[in-house]
Amino acid sequence: MSAVLPPDVVPPLSDWSSCDARQREALLCRPAQAEDAGVRTAARAIIDAVRRDGDAALERFTREFDGVSLRALEVDEVEFAAAERALDAAARDAMGVAIANVRRFHEAQELPRLDIETLPGVRCERLVVPIRAVGLYVPAGVAPLPSTAIMLAVPAQIAGCPVRVLATPPRADGNADPAVLHVARRCGVQRVFKLGGAQAIAALAYGTSSVPRVDKIFGPGSARVNVAKQIVATDPLGAAIDLPAGPSEVLVIADERARPDFVAADLLAQAEHSPDAQAMLVSDSRTLIERVRTEIAQQLATLSRAAIAQRSISTSRFVLVRDLDTAFEVSNAYAPEHLILQVSDARTHLQQVQAAGSVFVGPWSPEPIGDYCSGTNHVLPTNGAARAWSGLSLLDFTRRITVQELSSDGLRHLGPVASRLAALEGLDGHARAVDLRLSALGARGGS
Hints:
The protein has 3 domains: 7-33 and 246-375, 3-Layer(aba) Sandwich (Rossmann fold), CATH 3.40.50; 37-243, Nitrogenase molybdenum iron protein domain (Rossmann fold), CATH 3.40.50.1980; 407-440, Single alpha-helices involved in coiled-coils or other helix-helix interfaces. Helices cover 43% and strands 16% of the residues. It has helices spanning 21-27, 37-53, 55-66, 77-86, 89-107, 146-159, 178-186, 197-206, 223-233, 260-271, 286-300, 306-313, 324-334, 367-372, 408-424, 428-440; strands spanning 14-15, 114-119, 122-130, 133-137, 163-168, 191-194, 216-218, 240-241, 249-254, 278-283, 317-320, 338-342, 358-361, 398-406. It has a 6-stranded parallel β-sheet, with helices on both faces. The chain has a 5-stranded parallel β-sheet with strand order 6-5-4-7-8, sandwiched between helices. It is globular, with a radius of gyration of 26 Å.
């Protein structure tokens, strides 16, 4: 067991009540992000090269960034078979449970067909149709993420997207991660490509001779991947994207009865993701905060990714508030990706949550359960985007198309209203499209 680190590796607490407006704003700021002008310039250059040189650029970037010369970009049946042999039964069973729970939760999100008459003879409908082609990006920077493959592939399959393409970086041996391939095959993904980084996003957005072009790209990634997603999403010739997703973050609200070891473990579970991940603790108990700080120093020394977690924890926040109502005000202002409620009667406080990606209620609901297997989706908005964005759901893989159909009687009822509103806006062409039909029916317009 590693030596216990001194508690001063963890930042001291900040008293919210003694902070002025500027200091409070600073407490709610995320750490400096990896994105800068250099990242954007690099992502743009990669995208331009892929659009210009296609597969040749993909092969070149794979050699440069992944250190691999691939025989083929696409995973073939031989590699799929080898992946199945590489996994033991326990691993397959665990992924099976996770897939089943994610499927169960996302199937419950299906929208019923909507078909109503707003007035006699005026029929309005909503059709739910799958997005034609989706690209699923599964990162593997520090470690492969089969859990992300589950979170993307399951709803895409339920939605019935006709074209489902997955991209994931190759390992040093030139193969894709076996667990990711197992999930892809089990969840009906038709094609898998060994591609990572901004080059994968470019290939999915614009297509190459090997990689099909998709309409929408899903999945988290590095700073360069996220910038690449933003670039292609603003290009009319590119592809839509799922949601703003940056470094992982968690905010824990805890009271004096919370277990310090549980709270510390929850904070470190996010801190070990990356140096720019953020962990925050908000509590009305000074004693609890100090015990958590000590516990973090003890647990941190035992982690295999201690160096990464320590860099993240160095930018963490420990905020003392006067009561739990203030704690929820702080949390809603921060809008965390993950919100953990380690307070007495935690469920009664759910009504106070106004902005969060996903909430974990009570002492027996650790955040990794949501990451892997509870059934909810772990692709969530970060960096404050939870104020307006929701986590990934089945609806993100569909389009909702509205339909209207009027009978002649329906137009007689509603046409004069539309004609009058068009006149108010000075759009006589709009009015004419209605009034010509009303004249044909022997009815009067509204203008």
